[in-house]
Amino acid sequence: MTVRDTRRPTSREGAGTPLGEDVAADASSRSPAEKRAVDEGSEPTRNASGSGETSTMEGRDVAVSVTGLCKRFGDGPDAITAVDDVSFDVETGSIVGLLGPNGAGKTTLIKSILGMVLPDAGSVRIRGVDVYDRPRKAYASVDAMLEGARNDYWRLTVRENLRYFATISGVDPASVRDRHERLLAQLGLADRADVPVRDLSRGMKQKVSLASVLAGGAAVVFLDEPTLGLDVESSRTLQRELRRLVEQEGLTVVLSSHDMDVVETVCDRVLIMSDGEIVADDSVDALLSGTDRHRVQITSRDLDAAIVSTLRDRFETIGVDPRDSGARIDVTTDGDGLYELLGHLRAENVRLDRVRTIEPDLEDVFVDLTSIEREDR
Ligand SMILES: Nc1ncnc2c1ncn2[C@@H]1O[C@H](COP(=O)(O)OP(=O)(O)OP(=O)(O)O)[C@@H](O)[C@H]1O
Hints:
The protein is α/β, with parallel strands linked by helices. It has two domains: about 1-290, P-loop containing nucleotide triphosphate hydrolases (Rossmann fold), CATH 3.40.50; about 290-360, Malonyl-CoA ACP transacylase, ACP-binding (Alpha-Beta Plaits). The protein is built from 13 helices and 16 strands. It has helices at about 20-25, 30-40, 105-115, 135-140, 160-170, 175-185, 200-215, 230-250, 260-265, 285-290, 305-315, 335-345, 360-370, and strands at about 1-5, 55, 60-75, 80-90, 95-100, 120-125, 130, 140-145, 220-225, 250-255, 270-275, 275-285, 295-300, 315-320, 325-335, 355-360. The longest helix has 18 residues, at about 230-250. It starts with a strand and ends in a 7-residue tail after the last helix. The structure holds adenosine-5'-triphosphate.
């Protein structure tokens, strides 16, 4: 496994945590080759439970299987349960999105899966192999980019980085030359392929980092905030390339992002975390059809400051746009609330110049499930 993570362990990391975690946290600052050695030499001792057989999910291959994972930081009343009995499977050849507000436990979960944090309980299997019993075998087909990280070799050119990361993931770079050229072209890096990474802009470095993750033969990749800092076009290109790799090459992706549009567009399935637990696990369509929240946009010349103020008090108002005469107001409500809203407007003799209902998006579902305000994510 290679992990691109430039974040160095902070004093917070490892405090009051098992020894294995210090080793793992330290490993994240090493070179990928060194990390392999750490992988080899510092296997945490856990009960043997991995048989190495391939798991299935209703007859389909499972790439990642997480069962009963728990991680607490600290002891006593100040202890924080970052991951609380989390279980899920990821089907081979799919993209699963991990969403959650700040502090929900996403990073701790991903680091536990990757062996960078030692969980207190639970098991993780990658392609049927227990990661704690046989880390080298389990992680052989895994690559990751964490925390929007950029940890390529800045003195090497873009192309050299791709070749390097392919080599250390055990792939002959010549055999994946086509993949590299396509990644370079699709991510808009072709004309910078022979430029040292240090001379590129921040957004370009992010793209190189992503290309490096996809450069080897990894069958399972973990991407934390992969589109952070990318312009709209590059973000879309990356999403297309991910889907292509999934559909044509059977790549499995676990992706965490605060960008709901990215998750909604690219993911087959979404896990929503809140306070260390998975509070939703379903396809985007199922999550959208399961929500009772509606956004209603009402424009009226009669919406004066006093009426708007009452509406703000009584309904979940997400935006007010004053007009030359009256205003346009955006309200989020469920079915009963909609009747109440219209009844209220009628009682106030507000004429409805325009009423628009807006289909709920993933962000509405997220707000519903995590009680987080849209602007507070
Ligand atoms: N090494 C650590 N020591 C102590 N507490 C920690 C440590 N790492 C994480 N935590 C705590 O665990 C909880 C989950 O943190 P985590 O970073 O996993 O959340 P997250 O969902 O990734 O958040 P964000 O979206 O902000 O990155 C938080 O309360 C955090 O403060």
